[in-house]
Model the fold of this input.
Amino acid sequence: MNRALLVVASIVVVGIAAAGVGQRVRSRAAAALLPSLPDLAGQPTAVAEHLHDADAQARRDPASAHAVGALGMAYHADLFYDAAAEAYQAAKRLAPDDVEWNYLLALIHVERGEAAEAAARLREIVAANPGMALAWLRLGDAEFKRAHYQEADEAYSRAEDAPRAANAGVPAVDAASPARSETIPVAAHAALGQARIALQQGDIERARQSLEKVVDETPRFGAAHRLLGDAYERLGDRDKAARHIARAAALPAFSAAPDPRVDALARESRRSVLLIKQAAASDLVRDAAWREYLLRRALEFDGANPDVVYEMGALLQQLKRPRDALPYFERHLDMVSDDQQTLVQIGKCQADLGQFKEAESVLRRAVALANDAVGEYNLGYVLEQVGRADEAERQYQRALALNPGLASAHTNLGTALVARGRFTEAAAHLTEAVRLEPGNAAARNNLGALLLQQRQLDAAAGQFRLALELNPDHADAHANLGSALAQQGAYDDALRQFDEALRIEPRHSAAGANRQAVLARLQAQDRR
Amino acid sequence: MLPKSAPSPFLRPQPVGLPIEPKSRPLIAHVTVVDLDQDGLADIVACDVLANRVVWLRQAPRGRFTESPLGGDVRAPAHAQAVDIDRDGDLDVLVASLGVMFPSNARIGSIVVLENDGRGRFSNRALASEIARVADVRAGDLDGDGDLDLAVAGFGYDDGETHWMENLGNWRFRSTRLLNLSGAINVEVVDLDGDGDLDIASLVSQEWEEVYAFVNDGRGRFEPRLMWGSTNDDFGSSWLTAIDLDKDGDVDFLYSNGDAFDYAPPSGRPWHGVQWLENTGAVNFTFHRLADFSGASSPQAVDLDGDGDLDVVAVSAYNAWDDPSAQSLVWLENDGRMRFAMHDAAASPTHLVTVAAGDLTGDGRPDLVTGGLHISRPYDRMSRITLWTNMCCRAPL
Done:
């Protein structure tokens, strides 16, 4: 090696050494910015381990924005907001151009209800990322909450206009967790925000127009139907108001805007309260798998918590999986003895499984513990199923004495009375059920069926149509509407309804039989 | 927000009223301290949801409380205000009735007056029925005609509303909607803008989480103004109390968010807490977070330590009760410069949803009364109505 080369090599070695020293200094400086590990005594083991691991990971690589930001997410997901904010700030210093950490900081302000702070941070974000629809939407919400309507309106407009692709670039989803559906798109939420501004400013017609567009494009947006109902009521159109309120009542009352970063926090979380919160906020119909995934995570991390066990049972019950739900309720009862609500749920599961004797026993135990309308109602249902009509009727009456607003008890009592030929009393109960729950398609179908039986064909058809507006896949309502139409001589329309019922439920016997009867009648007419 | 301070063991609890019946779980939604019979001794009025009754814990003689129902049944009473609504010289009780405590869109709410005959006998008089579940109702002359009108928080479920009811005389009232948002949980009737007439403030929970002012033109025409809103749609707004906290001559609000009657488990929500909405004039309010407190409810201003400024007490209905140190009663000590330090006051009984202050022992110090609402587990530290005697700090005035 010649001297020149040796000098160069020495410089390089010194340079590398100096760089190493510099990196260590930077690492130490970066490590000093990390939040101290909070006192984790008393925390669930899964949370403590999660935070220990994330902290160790970040300290191994404190100059990595990704590692430090991941620590922030761990804290955030486990509901340690102060520590999360510190870690996000540190990550932001390491990677000032990465929107991720600033956005998550903004989310902490949002969750703390700090509209002014959230708005300030979101303004920074949209200034650097003008195509980020979610940030515009959240900015609109934050400005609305401050009654800064002009700023809110502008932000909502930008959220509506942002290309959907701008939502890309969000955290990758691991294959083990179900994908989320976009139940209500960002643009619909933004339009709802603009309608709220218009309502706030007394411009009802502008709100109406905006909301009509929203429900046209996003018919499952319950909040939009409800506000539209309000707008129509204020405009004096009671019929339309009632229709939209009824539609709203049949839909989830509220759906948060889908946010992949919030979902990423849910995936990261070991904290049962956050997992259950996110599960509860997701659509039962479209995001059932996601909901179940989150609750299974909650059970994994906090399985000794009776509330978590109960939630799992309740979800499976809602998903009409009583066989799966039952063990969770039984486990909950082992944890919280004599829990009246759990006994009722066990009784419901057993009834759904056709185990009526067991269900009766457990429901009697439940109603002996406390005056509970739901327990009495379920006991009534069980007794009705085993043919003890008198006792069932008394149970339903007892349920209604405890809670006159229990629509399901009115419905069941009404249908039981129809079966016993007491039509006047039945009509009162079925009408009350519809009044209490105007968005309940089944209640409207039941009332329609009674009206049909009494040959009040127009009124019956009206109820069936409203039922179908609320639930277009209600096979019974299609079949019943077909019968009403057939009795009015509208055979072609009737056949269309029978066909629809059979499309939804191919073995629908009444639809099949009535369809044949109508066809036979048409053939007879042709022959004449 | 100041760091948390040392626990304060100077509030001594003592159950008052009827004992908890075997196998029952108390559901006291509201307590208030008032000398209902105007005999010079403070009494307690409470809303007992389990019994579907408003009850009176009459103090006579001093230190002895005897519980009896006021009037007939009231379904799921949520709030009671003692007020001479018919202006006959005695105190009646104005009651907000939910109809049922659990969420429902059914129009089963009502407004009931328990009318005092002047001899301590009360009879029910429904002022409105078959309306959205009513969480709160307050009286005040809203149209300046000399009689008492009503401001109503119709919580409902998905379809509640805030409205006011004009007193037409002869117990007839005409209702006018102010806001068609569900979840109205509290109303206050106060002069928000200092113009001499009464305005209305409404706390709207559910997914809205907003506080509205309805500014009165003096003749019962109201202009809605959004006073404050939370960006968290799960904030859990639970209580709004009007009070001039900083004693600067205008009305501020204490505001808690701690409702968790939605998804389980209810415990440990770090966004729950107690706030002061400071009136900065022209119906503008500045938000100050005073304390983080899971399940926070019913914040009340009271000079608990007798140092001349107003402190804050608050209770929790939904804390992490599996942790025996989780607090159900705290007080926030005012350092005199509107900075507040939270002190633990009690971890048992649990599930306290309502607190009221008043000198119940006659020693010049404000005491507290709480109510237990046990709708979720655990059920091992239950209470109905508890009197907390204040043993703090200075000699009685």
